[in-house]
Amino acid sequence: MRILLVEDDAEVARFVKKGLMEAGHTVEHAANGRDGLFMAASEQFDVLVLDRMLPGGVDGVRLVETLRGQGNRTPVLFLSALNAVDERVKGLKAGGDDYLTKPFAFAELLARVEALGRRPAAEVPTTRLKVADLELDLLSRTVTRGGKKIDVQPREFRLLEHLMRHAGQVVTRTMLLEKVWDYHFDPQTNVIDVHVSRLRHKLDKGFDKPLIHTVRNAGYMMRAES
Amino acid sequence: MPRAEHIHAPPLIGLLRSASGRFALFFTAFFAAAATAAAVILWWNTAGALERQVDAAIRADAAALTDRRRMPTVEALAVAIEDRLALDVQNEALYLLLAPDGAKLAGNLEAWPSEANAEQPWIRMPLLRDGLVSEARILRLDMSGGYRLLVGRDVAEKLRLRGLLSEGIAWAASASAAIALFGAWGLRRALERRLSPVYGTAKEIAAGNLSRRVPLSDRDDEFDRLGRIMNAMLDRIAQLMEGVRGVSDAIAHDLRTPIARARAKLEEALDGARDEAALRAAVEQGIADLDGIARVFQAVLRIAEVEAGARRAAFAPIDLAPALADAAELYGAAAEARDQKLVSDLPTSLPLVGDRDLLMQAVANLLDNALKFTPDGGTVRLSAELSPVLVEIAVADDGPGLPQEDRARAGERFFRADAARSTPGSGLGLSLVRAVAALHGGTVTLGDTNPEAERPGLTVTLRLPVG
Q: A196: closest CA among A220, A174, A180?
């Protein structure tokens, strides 16, 4: 993916750029809002990673508003030291797609950037999701693996749906909390792990190939082991 | 009680400079205008009426004397004049009838006065009678054949009356002006006296003594209302200051320790790690410690944000019942993993005006606490009830409970009961719950789940007003 990083802190920028490049992405960096806006408007990127507060008169929110005003729909991830909930809402309202508060773990940033970049450009309505021999029918709300029906609770269905939609990508615990439970705070415990392990137990019972994998220090990934 | 400075300024300038002085002066002016209006009306109805009466009498007299049918000849007119003079006991009537050649035919005036040559038929002139100066009101009539007639009245008596009246009004006016000024001064004094506690309080607060409040009287008037509003404002400011102080205290004391711990561990690893694996483990531990610090920091800031009331803008009508069911479901799995039971007893709907995210976080904190302190195999109950004015949410556990003396302190930032020191946590969970409850105008109470049992457990009840 081609990623534009607009971040004024040199150390954070270096760290993020290095990490993203190691993960196989191309990264352009701008150190202030004006340069960032210029690059974002004149070149093609898959994801923009913007600091919320930027020097140079154009801050992250202004940058996104300007881009969206020009019809540019490139997904935007905000990085921010502003923790207040209202700030998050402001960022998303301006046209941001995701919001990550500093300090953050790089794995969290990477997972979110990849989730944004691989999002289907046009929301094609799918009715069936399939990973290896696991199938999820969104209309009848049934889950089958190898033709065998698996009983899941509604919340587990949504959890599974999210993991399958992002199959092959790392999904972090906070992403699951936000997307599946709509919780925007840190519950400070391993509540998500328990739900995932329960779901994993249901899916893998009687099958030898696990589908939900734990990614150390990051989260989970739905993947057909080859 | 310190007095305001302008009380000591020169009286008149001070009076004009102070709002209460201007207010009082305005009323003085108003009062004076009313008194003037009263005097004018009095004058019109007394002195004015007398004058109009005199003029009317002269006019009637003149009309009678110049009536041709009754006075066909000059001689008859002269006789009539002499008759009238003879009958005038009050000695007020004045007449003069002159022939065309200037000869006096009748009347009690000696000579034609120069004032009578004016354009106007009505004249007013000084008169010397019996050695006394008096005033006369006279009407001039030019008759056919060159005869001239003056008909008038001596108005000395009326003049005296008018003098008395003017004197009376002048005295009354001075008296009322004096009373009004005195009233203005008194009004200003009264206003100053009622306002000086407010000045005093504001001054002391400006000097840094934020604990001062405006003293209130039991009159419950405008000044008490002002005082009450000021006090409410000061309470709010003090609360916000307290919040800021709480955050800085937290940073100063309670974040230093974990930072020091993390730093020590990293330093130790740098100096003495035996192999790469040990170094790696130490660095990972360092990152985990830093994450923990960031989490505490975020919790402290969130509490401050909630306590400042800044989030009231995000209030919306919500239904808490499905949200609570979600929370029970989220934590239910965690409970199950430890063989605990999370039982929920929720109504179908809990309408409320509030901030969903914050309420969820509060309930999540309560559930998290309850599960943490309940032994394996124990039960945690999440229940809610809706009354017409109140939503009551209770989280009950059957853990060791909380000693009475710790209950009041539970909810202070970073407070951890002695028994809880071995469990993970920052001591901020209940602080946030309290702050969220206060933001919604509600309360948090702590009680025993089973007061009689050896392990009484703890029940935390969150009561929130519906509106």
A: A220
> Which amino acid makes up residue A199?
L
What is the pLDDT at residue A226?
A: 56
DSSP string for A82-95: ---HHHHHHHHHTT
| Angstroms from B290 CA to nearest CA on chain A | 9
Which of these three, A58, A92, A117, is where a domain ends? A117
Answer yes or no: do B369 and B460 share one domain. yes
In a domain, B224, yes or no: no
The CATH number of the domain where A14 resides is what? 3.40.50.2300
Q: Which residues of A touch B298 (CB under 8 A)?
A: 83, 101, 186
Residues B300 and B369 in one domain: no
Question: How far apart are the C-alpha atoms of B11 and B241, rounded to whole Å?
Answer: 41
| Cβ within 8 Å, pair A191-B298 | no
Q: pLDDT for A186-225, tens place per residue? A: 776 788 998 999 999 999 888 888 899 999 888 999 988 7
Verify cis geometry, omega within 30 degrees of 0, for the bond prior to B258: no
Domain membership of residue B283 as a residue range: 239-307
Select from B290, B331, B361 the Cβ nearest to the Cβ of A191. B331
Please write the tens of the pLDDT for every residue from A14-50: 999 999 999 999 999 999 889 999 999 999 999 999 9
The tens digit of pLDDT for each residue in B112-158 reads 888 777 788 888 888 877 777 888 888 988 887 888 888 988 888 88
Residue B332 resides in a domain = yes
Sign of CA dihedral B56, B60, B63, B65: negative
CB contact under 8 A, A187 and B313: no
Whole-model pTM: value is: 0.63
User: Does the ipTM surpass 0.90?
Assistant: no
Q: In what order do the strands lie in the sheet with A2-6?
A: A26-30, A2-6, A47-51, A76-80, A98-101
- Structural domains counted in chain B: 3
User: CA of A58: how far to CAs of A4, A34, A40, A61, in Å?
Assistant: 16, 6, 13, 8
Shared domain check, B144 and B41: yes
Using an 8 Å CB-CB cutoff, list chain A residues near B334. Answer: 189-191, 194
Best residue in A180, A184, A189 for a mutation probing chain B (most B CBs within 10 Å): A189
